[in-house]
Amino acid sequence: MLSYQHAFHAGNHADVIKHLSWIGVINALKKKDKPFTLFDTHAGAGAYDLTDEMSLKNKEFETGISRLLTKDSSTQDLPHLLADYLSLCEPFLAQQQYPGSPAISAKAKRDCDNLHLMELHPAEFDKLDKNLSRLRSLNTHVHKRDGYEGLRALTPPKPNRGAILIDPPYERLNEYSDLVKGVEQVFKRWQQAQIVVWYPLLSERAGAKSGASEAMCDQLAALGKPCFKAEICVAENTVDAGMYGSGVFVLNPPWQLDANLNHALESVIGMLGAGEAGFHATAHVSWINEDN
Ligand SMILES: C[S@@+](CC[C@H](N)C(=O)[O-])C[C@H]1O[C@@H](n2cnc3c(N)ncnc32)[C@H](O)[C@@H]1O
């Protein structure tokens, strides 16, 4: 049943909003000296070769990261979160690669911080293992296991501070409800977990999956934690649009992540520019349960 391969999508607009948000969470955790633990429940291959057949099939990176990192771009005048993301991506892009969330976490964390990467697909796991050993990141552990089962076994971490990235492929409809159950169970053991959930925005063409992300966000909000969502749309939500954008739902967000992300996304949509039919990318950040 595991057929999804992220290489087809590496570096697209969805990776941009997901990885920007995740770096924002890691940056906030680094403000204190005390070590923290990061969990990536659906890690993928770790890093992606943009010259391989899969990445070149639709060249999704060309309308994502490539538009942000052009020869003329300088990170100097950019919002600091966007500048951090682009500085981290630059050395990978120089080798025609894109860093997946595992490489991003490994590069952004400090040696004292822990990183647990979970991947179930055997071939993706082997690539993850190889890619991460090349990065020689200390206190980094790769696990061939189900992400939610891994969270049950490994949380709460000691010391009790850290964050979770949940980025499923959403190939099956029940992945939306599995995610809500997984988050609910984590909060029973680890109230303070900061959680970033990525989700697709799908038009009517996706059938039963259209509207599933919105319903999942409502269920996550009902857990009662402070939370906001940030979304990028790259096409109009017409019947045939397919995936017209994506978002992140952030639970227990760190202070000022909403403002930093908003600022970064304003620049991102200008750089992504016009998509199909001349539609200009849009972005918004909105609180669901305010952090009082
Ligand atoms: C969207 S990709 C991950 C991309 C990665 N987070 C990134 O940003 O670079 C989703 C991955 O989850 C894996 N996967 C699917 N179900 C899983 C599960 N229950 N536990 C762990 N991994 C799973 C798939 O094999 C796939 O590699």
Topology of helices and strands:
Blueprint: H1 13-29, E1 37-40, E2 47-49, H2 53-58, H3 65-68, H4 80-94, E3 97-99, H5 101-108, E4 114-118, H6 122-135, E5 140-143, H7 147-154, E6 162-166, H8 174-189, E7 194-202, H9 212-221, E8 227-233, E9 243-251, H10 257-272, E10 282-289
Parallel strand pairs: 1-4, 1-6, 4-5, 6-7
Antiparallel strand pairs: 2-3, 7-9, 8-9, 8-10
Helix pairs in contact: 1-4, 1-5, 1-10, 5-6, 8-9
Bound molecules: S-adenosylmethionine.
Keywords:
single chain, 292 residues, alpha/beta, Rossmann fold, globular, binds S-adenosylmethionine
Describe the structure.
The chain has 292 residues and is α/β, with parallel strands linked by helices. The chain has a single domain (6-289), classed as Vaccinia Virus protein VP39 (Rossmann fold). The chain contains ten helices and ten strands. The chain has an eight-stranded mixed beta sheet, with helices on both faces. Strands 2-3 form a two-stranded antiparallel ribbon. Helix 1 packs across helix 4, helix 1 (13-29) packs parallel to helix 5 (101-108) and helix 8 (174-189) packs parallel to helix 9 (212-221). The longest helix has 17 residues, at 13-29. Bound molecules: S-adenosylmethionine. S-adenosylmethionine is lined by residues 2, 4, 6, 15, 18, 41-44, 100-101, 118-121, 124, 146-147, 167-169.
Describe, in short, the structure shown.
This protein is of the alpha/beta class. It has a single domain, classed as 3-Layer(aba) Sandwich (Rossmann fold), CATH 3.40.50.150. The chain has 10 helices and 10 strands.
